[in-house]
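quick one before i forget lol
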Amino acid sequence: VTIQELQANTHLDDQTLQIALSTTLEATRLVELGNGRYWSSSAYYGLSQNVHSELERFHQQHPLRPGMPREELRRRVNVAAQTFNSFIARDDLTASNQDLVRLASHKIMFSAEQEQAIKTLVGIFQSTPTMPPSFTDAANITGEDVLYALIDQGMLVMIPPQVLFLTETYEDMARMTVKQIQDTGRIDAKDLRDVLRSSRKYIIALLEHLDSQGITRRVGDERVLGPNAGNYLG
């Protein structure tokens, strides 16, 4: 309920209404959600229980995922977006970003077997960093859930179409691409392939992703520096 709705229903003046609200809040019969919105404590704690139960269930079913999609959770607990966002913002037992919500206590834990598989996979990436294994081959080593967890944690970068690099390799390749363009004015896929000692498949994927990020810009068959290249300029 909003302050405006309370005024309309109670016909109290502003000062009297504020006193009544303060008294009710102190008695914990109302919870302020922010933006002039209030919930009864019973409704608030009912929502809290529903949110935490849904998240607990999600974490049990998907222990390697960093969180539940925000909109999916909102639909599950069946509240308006503004109310849901206000609740999540003030709830100490949850953590969230723009897309995901999780219990604050949730941490991704790998088993010993999964840790060994990750070690094996990282070794393969490190042995030929600019010629990485395919998504399918990588998933066959770790399992898809573990592979996506490594992407979520920032160990791996995935760019379309499902091309994987170690994050430090991707950053190095982006930096070297920008440096080559800075030195020569422009570069094509063939020359960059030779510089990075990679294959056309991976170079095209890299360049298209750099284009999408504004780091490079395509001009015919060549690339020049894009508006966001500054992050990689030496």
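fyi The longest strand covers residues 30-34.
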